[in-house]
Amino acid sequence: MNNEDIIFQLEKNENEAKQNVETILHNTNSEIFKNLYEFWQNFDRESAIVEMLNAFKQNITSFWTNPRFNKDLSKKFNMILLSHGGVYGGELEAFAINFQNGKKELLTLEITDERYDYLDNISSLEAFIIHPLSDFTMKIQGEENNFDDWDDLMTMYTLYEATAHILAHKVFSIANKENILQSNFNIEKPFYMAISEHDSGIPDKIIYQIPVV
To answer: 205 by DSSP, 3-state: which?
Structure first.
């Protein structure tokens, strides 16, 4: 698995989610559903990437490398898990993990993955607000009953989440080029950035990898 494989799969997920949303669009009179799709179509991805990258850098300085929150900057680890609250959450919290995968090829993560060893150096620290998932959360407040049904809301959520994963991948790609993690932490390569949704019952996703070479 490499980053080309990862972004290919993330973009495939987004395209499939888009098709599912467009199928519903042909049969719905829900204004909130239509408005959310229009917002997604016109969303400024490049500006969002810049905003998220700047917040990521600031939070590393304010929290991740702050001795008040990180008691052991020398601790080695090989994964950051970024967790969010799903439909009602767009803020990522970071957890350092020693991912005990041995020499196996990493393809997919598992539900309640037993290979996770959570560390205490980076634990529930702010990463950044992830767009456009956070925008989705704000826009559906009080509008939940204006979808045709909950399945339609979740179909739109899946599209926004898929886009958020792509944008996060691009944030970490830039961060890697700027050696942000390597220069601040004792990371072990390959190093993985994964994302999860609280209590979703689905496996976490690898969204970026810093390779050995």
So the answer is: strand
Compute the distance between CA of residue 59 and CA of residue 128 in angstroms, rounded to an integer.
Answer: 7
Closest CA relative to residue 57, chosen from 126, 156, 141, 152: 126
Please state the φ and ψ torsions of residue 28, each to the nearest 5 degrees. Answer: -115, 150
Q: Which residues contact 72 (CB under 8 A, 6 or more apart)?
A: 120, 121
Residue 114 phi/psi, 5° resolution?
A: -75, -5
Residue range 164-172: mean pLDDT, rounded? 97
Rounded-to-integer distance, Cα 171 and Cα 148, Å: 35
HSE of 209 in the Cβ direction (CA atoms, 13 Å)? 19
Asked if omega into 67 is within 30° of 0 (cis), the reply is: no
Q: Where are the domains of the chain?
A: 3-210
**Cα separation of 208 and 2, whole Å?**
8
Q: Which of 87, 97, 170, 180 is nearest to 136 (CA)?
A: 87
How many residues in the chain? 213
Digit-coded pLDDT (tens) for 85-107: 888 878 899 999 988 876 656 55
Amino acid at 74: S
Rounded Cα distance between 206 and 196, Å, is 9
